[in-house]
Predict the structure.
Amino acid sequence: MLRIGIVGLSQTGKTTLFQILTRAHGGISAGRQEAHVGVVRVPDARLDRLSELFQPQKTIHATIEYMDMPGSVIELARTGLQSQALRELDALMHVARAFDDEAVPRESGSVNPQGDIENVELELILSDLAVVEKRLERLEKDIKKQKSPVLEKEFQVLRVCHAALEKQTPLREVEFGAEEYKVIRGFTFLSLKPMLYVLNLGESDAARASVAEQFAAEAGLKQRLRTAVSAICGKVEAELAQLSDADAAEFLASYGLQESATARLIRASYRLLGLISFFTVGEDECRAWTIRAGTTAWEAAGEIHSDIQRGFIRAEVIKYDDLIATGSFAEARNRALLRLEGKEYVVHDGEIVHFRHAG
Ligand SMILES: Nc1nc2c(ncn2[C@@H]2O[C@H](COP(=O)(O)OP(=O)(O)OP(=O)(O)O)[C@@H](O)[C@H]2O)c(=O)[nH]1
Ligand SMILES: [Mg+2]
């Protein structure tokens, strides 16, 4: 499952955002190292439509796990145990405060989301730099003792990391080859993680939440590689999460918004991480699966079960629109819209896949 950490300076609205994300879709939460963990169902109208068509016993949405990291991420990055929790995440959602409220104390002087983002970025870079320097020291000693191509490769890759970090470039902006990437993956560097910036806007800016990128540009937020920008108004959304669907729609409209933050943020996370969904359908279960764009049919089979991957024969594939238009697999087959694909086939977003497998 995809795991995203909600981080930021203190009192920026992280817990507010966590509650919005989890409560809105019936998420659960439980304490873990003082951080809250909640599982959120990924809303997907296509899956809902497929369920109407197949009337399965169960409908299973894709899920994302959100972790609300308490307090300041700057403190977290500096302390061992918590920094380990950060390192295990797939991506970070950085809540930057763009709302002004005398009643809520600020960690850093005035309201300055750009400045806060730069401060946090620097902290992640310094944390990685410490890891790299320690490892390089160790490697230097070991390489002197015995010649090892593996260690020399690691040394060379970490030198590249070191050079980037020293220039205050986060590692996510460095282009690594597949081999190099294999070397650095184990270090779980913080500045390598994809980052979704979430501006927490004041109530008067709430209507602009859906045009976050524009707002960000005006606020001087630079578009950087493997980052994305979205926005919410914590106060408005927190009220929204308490309402029934009908009341929520009216409430949103009164702020000039069309949808809740949850849907928008999840979409932004998927885009940032290059994720797509495919579906499996049947009378017992209709289910959405999350994969990286570029995943092959064989790899996708492995997401479901190692037995299905091992016994892979063919994948029967149909586009979502084609299945909805024909209404059944039988009719789709008649019209030659159902394709048989092999292991190397690259699965596309929205495709319904049935794996034929042995055993
Ligand atoms: N005016 C206003 N207040 C907000 C908004 N979002 C959150 N707050 C308030 O800001 C305070 C801090 O919010 P939290 O969500 O607890 O912030 P946090 O980042 O989790 O705080 P720590 O975990 O202590 O660092 C609370 O009193 C919230 O009600 C907003 O959009 N507008
Ligand atoms: Mg909190």
